[in-house]
Specification:
Length: 368
C-alpha cells in the first residue's frame, strides 16, 4: 500500500520488519529472592566515586547539561591516552551504534554482522532501510573469511562485537586486522568493544590503535558493563575526525545528561574499582564455566562477564525448561532464541551467592 492510500501514517520501509529488542527479565517468580543474571550487569555495583558525583548533580536539574560532555570526554581521553576531540559520547553505546547506522546506511544499502551477533545491529540497520547481511559463525566465533566474502558494492558497514554477546567469544586482533585489510576503504568497520575491560588475553585488542591508523574504523565502548552504570546510559566512541564530525551533526544536542557525564568521568578514573571487578570476574567466570562443564553441559569458552550454556536436546531438559525451573528458584538467566540459539541460556557472572546458587539449581534441574 502506498502512503497516500493508507488510512494511517506509515513508518519508513523496514521498520515494521524489526523484531523489538526484548531485554533480559528482571524478576524471578513471586516469593523468592531474585538473582538477576540476564543482562550482564555488574555484581559489584558501581564505583562509590561515580555514585557521589552523580548525586552531586541532583542540585541543578533545571540546567541543561554540557552538550559536548567535555568533562567525560576529557576523562576518557586522559585515562586511555587519546585525543578528546576524537571521542563522541552517547546515551549508551546503543545510541552510537544507531547513529552510525543512520549516518552511513540508507535504503538499498547492506550492512554485515555475524550469525550470533548483538541484536541491536539488525534493529539499527533495518531502522534506516538497510538490509542486514548475516554471516555464519564457526564454532560460535565470527568468521573473517565469510564476512569478507559477503561484501558487495552495496556494503556500507560491518558490525563486529569483540568480544561478542551472547557467545562470549572473541577474535584475536590479527584476525580483526585481516578483516579490516580485506574491506574496501569505503566500508566502515564498527568494533563494538562493550566487554573489552574484562578480556584477559594477550592476543586481544579493543581497536584503539587501528582507529588511529585507519580512516574507516570506529570503536564503541560502554559504562554499562564493568563500570556498573547501565542505568545511567553512557557509551563512547573513538573514531576518525570525519566520523566524529558526522555524528556530532546528527546526535541530539544534549544527548548526555549531566549526572551521566559526572558519574562516567569519576568512574573511569577509579581504576581500583575496575581492577576489583576484573579479579571477581576472572575467578567466577572460570569457576562457573568449569562447574557447568562438569555437569555435562556445553559451555562456549567466554572472555566476557557471562557464559553461553547449551542444554540437552531432550524433552524436559531443554534451555526453555531450565529457564522456567531456574526462575521459580530465583535465578533469572537469558533465553537467546532471538540470537539463533534456541537451546542455550546466557548466564551473567554474578556475586558468589548467585553463582553458587545458580550452578546448584542447574545441577538439580539436570538430575530430576
Ligand atoms: C551491553 C552491550 C552493549 C552496551 O550497550 P549500552 O547501550 O552501552 O548499555 C553494546 N554492545 C554489546 C555487544 C553489548 O552486549
Amino acid at each position: 500500500m502506498s502512503a497516500e492510500q493508507s488510512i494511517k501514517p506509515l513508518p519508513q520501509a523496514g521498520i515494521l520488519d524489526i523484531a523489538p529488542y526484548i531485554p533480559g527479565k528482571s524478576k524471578a517468580s513471586h516469593g523468592v529472592k531474585t538473582h538477576k543474571l540476564s543482562s550482564n550487569e555488574s555484581p559489584l555495583g558501581c564505583s562509590p566515586a561515580a555514585r557521589k558525583a552523580m548525586i552531586s548533580l541532583a542540585e541543578g536539574l533545571e540546567l541543561y547539561p554540557d552538550g559536548s560532555a567535555t568533562a567525560l570526554r576529557q576523562a576518557i581521553a586522559d585515562v586511555h591516552g587519546l585525543n578528546a576531540d576524537r571521542i563522541v559520547c552517547g546515551a549508551g553505546s546503543d545510541e552510537l551504534l544507531t547513529l552510525l547506522a543512520q549516518a552511513y546506511i540508507g535504503p538499498g544499502d547492506e550492512a554485515i554482522y555475524s550469525e550470533h551477533g548483538f541484536l541491536v545491529y539488525p534493529i539499527a540497520i533495518k531502522a534506516c532501510g538497510g538490509t542486514p547481511v548475516v554471516v555464519p559463525e564457526k564454532d560460535f566465533v565470527a568468521d573473517v573469511d565469510g564476512m569478507l566474502a559477503a561484501v558487495t558494492e552495496r556494503t556500507r558497514v560491518v558490525f563486529l562485537a569483540n568480544p561478542n554477546n551472547p557467545t562470549g567469544t572473541y577474535l584475536p586482533f590479527d584476525e580483526v586486522r585481516r578483516l579490516h585489510e580485506g574491506l574496501p576503504k569505503s566500508v566502515l568497520l564498527v568494533l563494538d568493544a562493550a566487554y573489552a575491560e574484562y578480556v584477559r588475553r594477550n592476543d586481544y585488542e579493543s581497536g584503539i590503535e587501528l582507529v588511529t591508523k585507519a580512516q574507516n574504523v570506529v570503536m564503541t565502548r560502554t559504562f554499562s558493563k564493568i563500570y556498573g552504570l547501565a542505568n545511567l546510559r553512557i557509551g563512547w566512541m573513538f573514531a576518525p575526525d570525519h566520523v566524529v564530525d558526522v555524528l556530532n551533526r546528527i546526535r541530539g544536542p544534549f544527548n548526555m545528561n549531566g549526572p551521566a557525564i559526572a558519574a562516567g568521568a569519576a568512574a573511569i578514573r577509579d581504576q581500583g574499582f575496575v581492577d576489583e571487578a576484573i579479579t571477581h570476574n576472572e575467578r567466577w567466570l572460570e569457576w562457573v564455566s568449569a562447574e557447568l562443564s562438569d555437569l555435562g553441559l556445553g559451555v562456549t569458552p567466554s572472555v566476557g562477564n557471562f557464559v553461553l550454556v547449551h542444554f540437552p536436546d531432550e524433552d524436559g531438559r531443554r534451555a526453555s525448561d531450565a529457564d522456567a525451573y531456574l526462575i521459580e528458584r530465583g535465578y533469572v538467566l537469558r533465553q537467546v532464541g532471538a540470537y539463533g540459539l534456541p537451546n542455550a541460556l546466557r548466564m551473567s557472572i554474578g556475586d558468589e551467592e548467585a553463582n553458587r546458587g545458580a550452578v546448584a539449581a542447574i545441577r538439580e534441574f539436570l538430575k530430576r
